[in-house]
Amino acid sequence: MPKKFSEQEKQWISKKLFEEGKRCFEAAGLRKTSIEDLTKACGIAQGSFYMFFNSKEELFYHILLEEEALIRNRLLASLNRSELVTKESIHQFLIESFRLLGESPMVRQMYLEGEFAQLVRKLPPELLEHNFSDDADALMPIIHHWQAAGILTHTKPELIVSMIRALVLLTLHKQEIGPGIYSDTISFMLDIVAEGMYAKRDLGGEIIE
Questions:
Q1: Res. 77: pLDDT tops 70
Q2: Residues near 183 by Cβ (< 8 Å), separated by ≥ 6?
């Protein structure tokens, strides 16, 4: 039977599992990290792990949520609301999104190392839906900034969020696209998206085609 812990011990162990989980997942990935790897560093029995998380995938996911929140905050901080919205500023935002995601070891493990499928299989749908809600909430200030400038004015903000997420999910297909041409392909595709968004801007009720 797993040992009972005091509230103070639970807080310390939870914090330690986050720290060790981040270290192990970044170094070895989700598949190669075992429950034993995580609990040994915390000095608890393997059975005690399940007092805190239902699976290693759930721990990975919660660490990933923290990482994505930091990335979203950095993107929002880089947004200059006094700046004119141009094709170049939209393209730069999209490129910066890919760059920050690509630089994160946790995000890279999930998307670029092909561990997304394992995560989706193991996690309850409501957790994944929570992630979509977080993305939508975080991206709303950017989308409202674009729409105030006439960009995709008549498009539901939720649909724009979904489009951005769909673009990001292309990182799952780096091998199929071809590692040697992947970066250029993404940059070119984002340029086309930004150009299309800007070309259809609404200037005082008249949509420019």
A1: yes
A2: none
